[in-house]
Please model this.
Amino acid sequence: MISGRVSLLLLSAGLLAIPAIAQVQSAPKAKPRVIVLGVNGMELDIIRPLLLKGQMPNLARVIDKGAYGKLRTVSAPNCPRVYSTVFTSTDPGEHGVTGFIVGGITANTNMLKEEPIWSMLSKGGITVGMANVPATFPVMPVNGYMISGMLTRGKNCEDGVLCAPKLSEVMGGDAVYPRSLKDELLKNVGDFYIDCERMPAAADLKGHEAEMIDKWLARVQVIREQQTKLFDYLLTEHRTDFTFLVQSCEDRTGHWLYPIAPYNVGYNPGINSVRQDAFPNQYIAFDKVLGTVLKHVDANTYLFIISDHGIKPLREFEEKDPHAHMDHEKTTPVIAKHDFADGDDVPGSFFAMGPGIKNDFRLMGLGASVYDIAPTILRLYGLDQPKQMHGRVLTEIFDSSENKAAARK
Ligand SMILES: [Zn+2]
Model:
C-alpha cells in the first residue's frame, strides 16, 4: 500500500518510476565501462624508442597488461574521414564525411549518412560521454554528454579547419550537449580551446623560427593541460558507461616538426634543426594525459587507445601523388603527412586492456582496422552489429574463454 502510494507520487512528480521498477525486476547485468582515448596520428615509429627509453611509462603499462598493434586505416586518411569510419564502420563514401571539406563546406555532423556508434549505444540505454572527438560539431543529442572537437567553428576560426575556437567563442552551432553543461564547464574547467592551435604561416616564421616554434609549442602545452583538466573533470563528475576522448595536437606538431634528416624532402634547417625533440615530446606529454585517464580505469574498465592514422615524412614521389599536401597545405610548409593515397603507408595504432583481454599480446600485420572499433565496442555491450558495418569484432584480443562467451551471444 505504501509502495503504491510512493509510485503514484513519483509518477505525479513526472519521474520515470516505471522504467526504474522494471529495471530492478529484470535485474540486468551491470553494463561494462569502456573508455576510448583517441590520439590524432600517433606514429609507432616515434613512440617505439620512447617506450624503450622508459619515457612513456603509462603506455608501457597498458601494453604490458593488454593487446596492441597497428591499426589499418582508410585511403588518404585524415581525421574527419577516419573518425567517421570509426563511428560507423562504413567507408568514407558511404558515411559522407570524406575529408575536412565536403562539397565546399566544412565537414559537420549533419553530413553523416550512416548511424554513429554514439547513437546506437544511446538507444541501447548505455550512457555516453564524448569530448574533443573530431568531426562531432555541431554536437548531437546522446544519452549523456557530447563536447565537440576538431572542425568546431568560432571566433578566429571561422571555417573550423585546423584552428581552435574557445568554448565561449563557438559560432554556427552548439559545441556542448546538453546546453546546461556549457556553463558548468566554463565555471569548473574554464574557457578552454576546443582543438589544437593553428600552425604559424611560413611568412610569420621567416627570420623568427626558434621564437615562433617555442611560442607555438607553449600554446600546444596550454591546450593539452586544458584538455587534461576537462577529461579529468568529466570522468570524475559525469561518469558514463561509454566515454570517448580525443587529443589532436600531436599530429599537428608532427606535420612541421617531424625529426627528419637533411636529405628528406622538405628539410629546412631553419625550422627542422631547431627543436628535434618537439614531436617526440608530444608523446611524452601525451603519456602524462594517459596517466590522468588511467586513474579512472579500474579492473572492470575496458580502455582502448586508438590512433586514426600514423604520420610519415614526405616521399620523393610527392609531386606526382594526387593527394600531395591535401592536409595542412595552407599553413607552415609540411615535412610529414598522413594522407598518402595508400593508407597502409601510415597505419594507426591500437592498444586495449580490460577484463578478458590478453596480456602483452601483439597484433601482427594489419589484421585490425579502424572499421573494427565500433563492432568490438557494440559486442562488449551485447549489441548486434548492424548490417551496414564492414568491420568485425576483434575476438583475437580476448582470451579463449571470453571468445567462447562472445561466440555464444
Ligand atoms: Zn594531420
Notes: Residues 119 and 408 are 25 Å apart (CA to CA). The first strand starts at residue 33 and ends at 39. Confidence is low (pLDDT under 50) at residues 1-26. The chain is about 35% helix and 15% strand.
